[in-house]
Amino acid sequence: MSSLSSRAVRIKIEAEESVKKQYTHFKHRLEIDHECILPVLDREMHSAFLQKGLSNLSSSYECLDASRPWLCYWILHSLELLDEPLSDETISQVAKFLGKCQCETGGFAGGPGQHAHLAPTYAAVNALCILGTEEAFQIIDRGAYCAASAARLTNIMTPELFDGTPEWIVRCQTYEGGFAGCPGMEAHGGYSFCGLAALTLLNKTNLCDVKNVLRWTGNRQMRYEGGFQGRTNKLVDGCYSFWQGGAFPLIHMILTMHSTKDDSSLSAESWLFHQKALQEYVLVCCQYPGGGLIDKPGSGLSIAQHFAGGKLSHVLNIGHENNIVRPTHPVYNVCVDKVVHADMFFKQLPPPKSASKSPNT
Amino acid sequence: MNKDLHKELTYITNVINKHPKNYQVWHHRRVIVERLQDPGRELDFTASILQDDAKNYHAWQHRQWVIREFDLWDNELGYVEKLLRDDLRNNSAWNQRYFVVNHTTGFTDDVIEREISVLLDRQLQNYPSVLAFCQQLYEDRYRSPYLMAYMIDTYEEMLEQESDDRAATLKKAEQLCNALADEYDQIRGEYWNYVARSLTSRYGSQTNTVEQEVS
C-alpha cells in the first residue's frame, strides 16, 4: 500500500534507528562493564543541571516566561525525587518568588504581573508544598482557586465547587479508551493522566471505563523502543514516561477498589506495563551527557523533559542502586512525605463554608 | 468594529503560522471568530496548519469547534478521506472520522456497513461472524497482537453471556493471552498475564471445582 510508505512511516523508522544506535552503543559499553553498574542514572550531572536552572535559565526558555511556576515545580520535584536537599536560603528565595506570582484576586500567574491562571496555580501550590516550610504554606492564599489538586491539597474542596465536573471528564474518554482534552477530540496521554487523576481526586473513578483506559494506555508502550508514545501511531517521547507511566498506579488502585472480591489477579510486585523496558529507554536513550533528560536520542534538552522522564518506577529498579528515586504521590506528583506534611498543615484550617460565595464579590 | 476584527484575524493567522502549538493564540482566534460569527476562513486555515503537522492538537480542536458551532459537517468526511489516503496511520484523521459520523448519521447499520467496506478488501460476508473472520485470519497464521486482542475480547463477551462451552472458550482466551505475553506482544506481558488471571478468576471457578473433584 502506497499510503504506508508515507512521510509518517519514514520519521517513525528514523526514530527507531536513532534508538537502535543508542542501544547498540550501550551494548558495547556493557561488554566492558565489569562492575555491572550499567545502565546508571547520572545523579550528579542531573542534579547540577537542575540546581543551575533554579537560578539561571538560558534565553531558549524565553517561550516559557508565562510558565515560571511550572519551571520551579519541575525543578523542585526532580530534585526531591533525586533526594537532593535545598539550602534554607534557596527555599526562602523560591517561596518569595512564587509569592510574587500570586495575584490579588487569588490564584497564581505565569510570572509576576501576569494574569492568574489555573495551570500555574496548580504548579505553584505543588512547588510550595515541596518547599514545605511555614513561610511557603503562608504564601498560599486559599480563598480563590479551584483546581482539583490544589483544592483537595489545601482542604477547600466542597461539593458545589466541582458540580458536574466528573460527568464532563468522563465525556472526554474516547472510543479508543484514553481521555481527550475535550469531548470529541483524540485520546492523548497528557489529558488521559489528568482525567484519571481528577476522577480519583473527586472519588468518581466508577464513572469511567477503566478496562479501556488500561488497554489503551498499555498499548502506548512501544515494543521496539520501550518508552511510551502520547497518542496512537505517534513517536516515542520520554515525557510520556510520566503521563502514561503515571496512569498505571492509578489504574492499579482503581482496579483494586472496584474488584468485588479479593482480586488476586493484580500483581503486588509490578504495575501493568513493562517497567524494565521503560527504565532502559530513559536511562540509555534519554540521558543527556551534560546532565538533564531528552525526549528521544538526538533531541534538545529541557527541564520539562527532566521532570517527566525522571518518574522511574520505584518498585522495580534495574542496574545500579543509583537508579532508585524517591517514591512520589501518584495523584499530586509531590513526594509522599511532603503531601502528608502539607495535608497536616491545611487540615488545621477550616474549609470554606460555601463555595457559592465568590471571592471577587 | 468589524473591520478591525478582520484585521485582527489576519494578524492572528500570521502569529499562529509562526507558533502553531501555543494555546493562547488559538484561544484568541476562537474569540475573534465568535465575535465575527464568520467561520469562512477556518476550514481552509486549519487544513493549511494540518498540512504541515497532520496531528496538531490545537488545529484539530479549533476545527471541531468551528464545525460544531457553525454546522459545517457536509464536506468533512471527504477531507478525512483525503488525509487517510496520504497516511493510513493518521490517528487524528480516524478520530475525526468517528467525530463526524457520531454527530451526523450516527452508527446505523448502513453506516457500519460502509465503514467496514472502507476497512476491508476481503469479502466479510463469506464468514458467519466477525469472530470467524478473525479465526480464519489467525489460522492463516496472522499473528497481529491487535487481531489476537480482539479475539480475546470476543471470547470474553461469550463468557459473559454464559455460552454453552464455557471451559473451552476460556481455554482459548487463556491460550491467546499466553501467546501474546510470551511471544507476540512481550512488551505487554504484565498486562496479558493479568488479563489471563482475571478471566480465570471470573469464569474459571466451575472448571476448577470440576478439576479438583476429578483429581
From TrEMBL, chain A:
Its EC number is 2.5.1.58. InterPro entries: FTB, PGGT1B-like, Prenyltrans, Terpenoid_cyclase/PrenylTrfase. Signal peptide: none annotated. Binds 1 zinc ion per subunit. Its cofactor is Zn(2+). Residues 142-334 form the Prenyltransferase alpha-alpha toroid domain. Keywords: Metal-binding, Prenyltransferase, Repeat, Transferase, Zinc. It comes from the Eukaryota. It catalyses: L-cysteinyl-[protein] + (2E,6E)-farnesyl diphosphate = S-(2E,6E)-farnesyl-L-cysteinyl-[protein] + diphosphate. Gene3D superfamilies: 1.50.10.20. Pfam families: Prenyltrans. Heterodimer of an alpha and a beta subunit. Catalyzes the transfer of a farnesyl moiety from farnesyl diphosphate to a cysteine at the fourth position from the C-terminus of several proteins. The beta subunit is responsible for peptide-binding. Belongs to the protein prenyltransferase subunit beta family. This is Protein farnesyltransferase subunit beta.
UniProtKB/TrEMBL annotation, chain B:
It is an enzyme of class 2 (transferase). Pfam families: PPTA. The keyword DNA repair does not apply. Keywords: Magnesium, Prenyltransferase, Repeat, Transferase. InterPro entries: Prenyl_trans_a. It comes from the Eukaryota. Its cofactor is Mg(2+). The keyword Cell inner membrane does not apply. Its EC number is 2.5.1.58, 2.5.1.59. Belongs to the protein prenyltransferase subunit alpha family. This is Protein farnesyltransferase/geranylgeranyltransferase type-1 subunit alpha. It comes from Mya arenaria (Soft-shell clam). The lineage of its organism: Eukaryota, Metazoa, Spiralia, Lophotrochozoa, Mollusca.
